[in-house]
Amino acid sequence: MEIQLENNLQTLRSASPLVHNITNYVVMNYTANALLALGASPVMAHALEEVEEMVTIAGALVVNIGTLSSHWVEAMKLAMKTAAKLGKPIILDPVGAGATSYRNNVLAELLETAPPTIIRGNGSEILALAGASIKTKGVDSTVSSTDSIEAAYALSKKFGSVVSVSGAVDVIVKGNQAAYISNGVPLMTRVTGMGCSASAIAGAYGAVVKDPFEAAISAAATMGVCGELAFREAKSPGSFQIAFLDTLAEITPAHLTELAKIKYA
Amino acid sequence: MEIQLENNLQTLRSASPLVHNITNYVVMNYTANALLALGASPVMAHALEEVEEMVTIAGALVVNIGTLSSHWVEAMKLAMKTAAKLGKPIILDPVGAGATSYRNNVLAELLETAPPTIIRGNGSEILALAGASIKTKGVDSTVSSTDSIEAAYALSKKFGSVVSVSGAVDVIVKGNQAAYISNGVPLMTRVTGMGCSASAIAGAYGAVVKDPFEAAISAAATMGVCGELAFREAKSPGSFQIAFLDTLAEITPAHLTELAKIKYA
Amino acid sequence: MEIQLENNLQTLRSASPLVHNITNYVVMNYTANALLALGASPVMAHALEEVEEMVTIAGALVVNIGTLSSHWVEAMKLAMKTAAKLGKPIILDPVGAGATSYRNNVLAELLETAPPTIIRGNGSEILALAGASIKTKGVDSTVSSTDSIEAAYALSKKFGSVVSVSGAVDVIVKGNQAAYISNGVPLMTRVTGMGCSASAIAGAYGAVVKDPFEAAISAAATMGVCGELAFREAKSPGSFQIAFLDTLAEITPAHLTELAKIKYA
């Protein structure tokens, strides 16, 4: 298997796809800036009255349940239905899955509404989403990503989705295929919105790369390599957060080829 | 025509006007910090129960429709009505105008509720607001600002508003007057919330400068000059975003006189 | 009286308590990053459907009324009731108290719902909360913190709360005790979310330190000392904001002992 990391980044930048995010309050600014820095075009819109039209003009839909409330859930469903009907990629970020039964119930409803093209979460969220009855410790904690591979395979088979599990090693699963990406730095877990940005960037790649497995791998590799490059500039969370945005703008296709560590199984 | 750029900045800083923002989730933090850095005093409040009182103690009202939903629209209308009754300047930022019919309908309702003192948007938003039936590509895209001058004149005549069109050259229109401001740097389009900050800062100047045309010019010149000064420090979007906030605090009246490039027509 | 500043910071970092925030849109990202940087684990959740469960798995609840609306108030009450029943510390940040009657009414309802363990605000907010009929000038303004000591004592006696008044000198009151903390820098008032971060960090300490008076003092000292350390790196508000997050991650227990200036009365 050969992922066209360089081409995909160039395509993203030349197409500058509009990514429609229905996401949480905590990360809206950061993910909008991450998309802009990388070269995509973000829009955040959650009104029931406009999500259909917004999905229609967008290249991908990213749904993130970080700060849920009931009227947002209705808009998420309508947007997902619309995206599915139009054949636009849907990225689901199950933030805090397992933390409360409300989150689990909403996630079950969303999965029934339309199968996501890509599901991206940390290990505990993917485990919870797959029905493993664990309780997460907040939205930033993780279990080992390799522990949750079984859950990722199960989700992928049930919904036909690519499942991207973020962790020290990112594991990306589609059907019986898996890719392991060994990039990134631990400091990324000390900045809020890194996972949410990974999902948003999966939306940007999903909008321009036909194969969602390849899109998810490109997104995870871009995040990980940018994390490593940013860590050369900044070792503490505040300045790292800013250096990471800089790096998303500065990263070249050649950086990806040179630094991405991807294995397939 | 002689704009008192230096005096206006000094007045803003000595008065530190309270600017009441009903704005979008994406930029709330950044625009609050921009107002604080420049020397104004921000408040963000959107509850129907309190917007009348908040407008009453504020020096200006900034309404930004970036992340619309229906209960916010009711509060926007009540706040605009109150501001109009009390003679306080209203700044309207029609984020994403033209992207969905919901946005267009809400904007039409807001314009009927009370004529804005200043309307500030990018070229495509101003075109859409003026009824030109174009579809915007997301909230950060622009058409050439000069293309939208006709739309700006039409809006200004219909509503008596100053219309400030942001772009490579900012064009500010009032009745038959126009000012062209050739400051700023392209990197400003790669940071979310720059346009929204321009609107918030127009609110801060609007609160302390009697003539809204002069207030809008002062705000656009301040944004553009700060963009140029910040670009001396930072060439990538993350660090530029931070340098821009620093510059809002550091800019002196003399910087404005020295660097602002304003032409009148 | 001997506050175990060093131990408390070490305990916070080793326990990494989950802090449940129902807070305002403006500061959500910054306070989440502040908690993560210091070593705690943030969660932001406001849905009526899930706050009970979220409080149950959290170590502390922080309620901040910065951008109020009615359906959030219901969730705040339910969360506070749940926290009180479970004996978990409740931190109340009365942002903008006194600015509108809606805020005052909501605060009265919240105080009736459950007595906060710690109330943290600036001088004008504490005065307003204590019923002094003053009008605040926005959410970032302050009166001298010493002016509001009487109000703090009154609140502490009425509700059994620790009351932490932020200002040039922070004053922390419990019953007849008071602590005065002379740390921090004036630039902290030019960055939005500093007060809200102080409340969130009081939640983090409250989750791991038994005595709420000691928790509030540890939080205020940590904020103030980090402000001084960050000011060594950055003198303007944008870069200071980022340096402050870095400092929260970098501060050692020894820094606290060395730099904290605490007096008791």
From TrEMBL, chains A, B, C:
<feature type="binding site">
    <location>
        <position position="193"/>
    </location>
    <ligand>
        <name>substrate</name>
    </ligand>
</feature>
<comment type="similarity">
    <text>Belongs to the Thz kinase family.</text>
</comment>
<dbReference type="GO" id="GO:0004417">
    <property type="term" value="F:hydroxyethylthiazole kinase activity"/>
</dbReference>
<dbReference type="Pfam" id="PF02110">
    <property type="entry name" value="HK"/>
</dbReference>
<keyword id="KW-0547">Nucleotide-binding</keyword>
<dbReference type="GO" id="GO:0005524">
    <property type="term" value="F:ATP binding"/>
</dbReference>
<keyword id="KW-0460">Magnesium</keyword>
<keyword id="KW-0067">ATP-binding</keyword>
<feature type="binding site">
    <location>
        <position position="166"/>
    </location>
    <ligand>
        <name>ATP</name>
    </ligand>
</feature>
<dbReference type="InterPro" id="IPR000417">
    <property type="entry name" value="Hyethyz_kinase"/>
</dbReference>
<dbReference type="GO" id="GO:0000287">
    <property type="term" value="F:magnesium ion binding"/>
</dbReference>
<keyword id="KW-0479">Metal-binding</keyword>
<dbReference type="GO" id="GO:0009229">
    <property type="term" value="P:thiamine diphosphate biosynthetic process"/>
</dbReference>
<feature type="binding site">
    <location>
        <position position="44"/>
    </location>
    <ligand>
        <name>substrate</name>
    </ligand>
</feature>
<keyword id="KW-0784">Thiamine biosynthesis</keyword>
<dbReference type="GO" id="GO:0009228">
    <property type="term" value="P:thiamine biosynthetic process"/>
</dbReference>
<keyword id="KW-0808">Transferase</keyword>
<comment type="function">
    <text>Catalyzes the phosphorylation of the hydroxyl group of 4-methyl-5-beta-hydroxyethylthiazole (THZ).</text>
</comment>
<protein>
    <recommendedName>
        <fullName>Hydroxyethylthiazole kinase</fullName>
        <ecNumber>2.7.1.50</ecNumber>
    </recommendedName>
</protein>
<feature type="binding site">
    <location>
        <position position="120"/>
    </location>
    <ligand>
        <name>ATP</name>
    </ligand>
</feature>
<keyword id="KW-0418">Kinase</keyword>
<comment type="pathway">
    <text>Cofactor biosynthesis; thiamine diphosphate biosynthesis; 4-methyl-5-(2-phosphoethyl)-thiazole from 5-(2-hydroxyethyl)-4-methylthiazole: step 1/1.</text>
</comment>
<dbReference type="InterPro" id="IPR029056">
    <property type="entry name" value="Ribokinase-like"/>
</dbReference>
